[in-house]
Amino acid sequence: MSRKPRKDERHAQILEVLRYTPHVRIATLASRFGVTAETIRRDLDALSDQELLDRAHGGAVARPMGIQPPIDEREQATVDERRAIAHTAARLLEPGQVVMIDAGSTTTQLAWQLAANGQALTVITNSYPVARAMASSASRLILCPGDFNAREGGVFGQDTTDYLTRFHANIAFIGASGLTPEGILDVNRDAAWVKRTLISRSERTYLLVDHTKFAQTVLERVAPLSVLDGIVTDRAPSDAMTQRLERAGVAVHIATLEAIDSALSARASDTTAREDTA
Amino acid sequence: MSRKPRKDERHAQILEVLRYTPHVRIATLASRFGVTAETIRRDLDALSDQELLDRAHGGAVARPMGIQPPIDEREQATVDERRAIAHTAARLLEPGQVVMIDAGSTTTQLAWQLAANGQALTVITNSYPVARAMASSASRLILCPGDFNAREGGVFGQDTTDYLTRFHANIAFIGASGLTPEGILDVNRDAAWVKRTLISRSERTYLLVDHTKFAQTVLERVAPLSVLDGIVTDRAPSDAMTQRLERAGVAVHIATLEAIDSALSARASDTTAREDTA
DNA sequence: TAGCTAAATTGGTATTTACAACAAAAATGC
DNA sequence: GCATTTTTGTTGTAAATACCAATTTAGCTA
Asked: Which residues are in the HTH deoR-type domain (chains A, B) (predicted)?
C-alpha cells in the first residue's frame, strides 16, 4: 500500500461532493481539481468498482442513501416484487387513517406508494427512509425516538417502544425476516420488540413479506400468526402454510407485477416493437 | 378536465422513477415508454423548467430532498468553508463526552468529521443526516421523536423538546440562519425552540455559522449572544460584531481551509521528517 | 367530417463523452 | 543514481447524446 495523497484525496472529495448533490459532471470535477477528464473518469471507475457511487454518462451519481450495507443480489432481484407488494398494501388504507409503519425495505416501498397516492394520513414510524419517502406528501409524520441503527435506518430500543405506546393506530404494516407456521420471525431483537409494540397498538396488522422470507427460520419469534389480520406477498405460500394462515384467520393478498403495471401505465406501448438495444 | 394522459402520465412516471433511483437515462425511459429519445428529452426539459428534477447529460437526476434547492456549482464553494468550520469545531470535543447536535448543513458536516475522527461519543440529535453521518462510528446515537420536516431532514415540535429535556450534555453544536448583535436568528420557529432546548440542556454551546450568515436578520430571535460559549466560523465578523461577541463572553474560532489541508497532509506523511507545510 | 393544434417522429448534423493505447511525468524502491 | 511502478496526460476513434427543423401523427373542436 502506497501513500498517494493525490488520488485518495480526490476520491474522498468526490464522495464528499456527492453527499450534497446527487450528481456531478466529469467536466466539473476536472476543472475543480485541475486535472484531465480522463483522470476523473478513472477515479469514478475506481470508486464505482468499490461500489461507493454509480456511474452515469458524463458524470456520477450518489448511491441511494436509504439502506446501504445490505444490498446483495437477492435484495436487488426482488425490488419489483416489493413494489408490487407495496402497491397492493397501499390499497388497504383509507384517507385520514392513522397508520404505523415498521422499518424495512418493503415498508419503505409502501411509504413511497402512499406518498404517491396523495392520501392524507397520520403516519407513525421508527424508520427514516419511511419518513423521507412520505415527506413530500400531505400526511403528518411522527417519528419515534430511540437508538439509531444505521443498518436498519431507524431507531430502536426502550425509548422507541415507550413512545409508541402513547399512540393508537387504525392499521400497522410490519416486515419480517422470516415467516413460518410458528409465526413471524426476525433477526433483530430490538426490531422484534418494536414490531410487537406496533402490533399491540393497532387495530389491524398486516405483514409485508416477499416469497424469499417463506420458511426462513431465524433468531427470534416476534409473534404467532394469529396476531395478523393479513399478509401481503408476491407468491402464494406452500399449501401447509396457507392452511395455517387460514386457520389463524389471516387473509392472504398476492401482489402481481401485472397489477401494478396495468394500474400505473394503463396504456404503455402499442404492438410496435421498438429496437431498444440496451 | 384535461384528457391528455400521454405526456402528463409520462411526466408523473418519470418523477416516480426518480424517487427510487437518483438517476435515469434517456435511453432507458425511451424504451420503457416506447417513445423516442427526443420525446423524453422534451419531457425532461419541461420537468426541469418546473424545477421538479435536474438535467444531466444523457438523463436526469432527482432533486435532493433534504437540503435546500440551490446546490449548484457556486454553492459548492461554501462546502469547503463548512468543512473547515466542522473540522475546527470537532477539536472542541473530547472522547466520551455527551454532545447534542442541531439539524443543519454545517452541523451535518461536523457529524462526518466526528465520525472520521473515530472518537467514541454519545450523540443526541434531531437530524437524520447527522445520525446517518455518525452511523458507522463508534458513537452511540440517540434520536429525538417529533414531527418530521423533510426540508430540514429532522424532527421538531413539542415532543422533540420534551424528549431533549431528559438529557444533559457536555456540549451542544447549533446552527442558525443569521447572526447579529441582537443574537442568534432562525427562519424556522420549531427549529428555534429545539435550539433553545439544546442550549438549556448543555454545559457549553457553540454556534457554527459561515460568513454568509453575518448580519442576516430573519424571522425569529433564538437567543441572545450571551448564551453562547463560542462561535466557529470561516471569516472574522465585523468589528462591531466582534466587540459585541467579546462583551458577551463568546470565544470566536476562525476556521481556515489551510488548517484542514495541512492537517490532512500531516496525517498523510507523518513518518517523514518535519517538512514545512505552508 | 374537416380542420386545427399539440405532440411525436424522423433525419441530419454538431457536440460531448467513452474507450483504449500510448507517452510523459512523478513517485517509489534498490 | 537508475530502474520500476504508479499515476496522469495525450491522442485518435467510436459511440452516445444534443440540437434543429421539417414532417407525420393523433387528439380535439366546431
From this structure: 7-62
Judged by CB atoms closer than 8 Å, whether chains meet at B34 and A270 is answered as yes
* pLDDT, greater one: A116 or B244: B244
**Of residues B22, B79, B105, nearest to A22 (C-beta):** B22
B29 touches strand D (CB under 7 A): no
Helix B26-33 and helix B37-49, axial crossing angle in degrees, nearest 10 = 110
pLDDT for B276: 27
- Cβ–Cβ under 8 Å, residues B104 and B85: no
Nucleotides of C under 7 A from a protein CB: 7-11, 16-21, 27-29
Q: Residue ranges of chain B with pLDDT lower than 50?
A: 1-5, 65-77, 261-278
Contact A116 B268 (CB under 8 A): no
CATH number of B73-263: 3.40.50.1360
Please list every residue in chain A whose beta carbon sits closer than 8 Å to the beta carbon of residue B146: 142-143
Cell numbers linked to B175: 446552527
Beta-strand pair A122-125/A140-143? parallel
Domain chopping of chain A, boundaries = 5-62, 73-262
CA distance A208 to B13: 24
Q: CB–CB of B228/B250 below 8 Å?
A: yes
- pLDDT at B206 (0 to 100): 97
pLDDT at residue A52 in the model: 83
What's the CATH fold of domain B5-62?
Answer: Arc Repressor Mutant, subunit A (1.10.10)
| pTM score of the predicted model | 0.70
CATH of domain A73-262: 3.40.50.1360
Question: Three cell numbers at B11?
Answer: 411526466
Average pLDDT, chain A: 82
Question: In angstroms, how far is C25 C1' from B164 CA?
Answer: 57
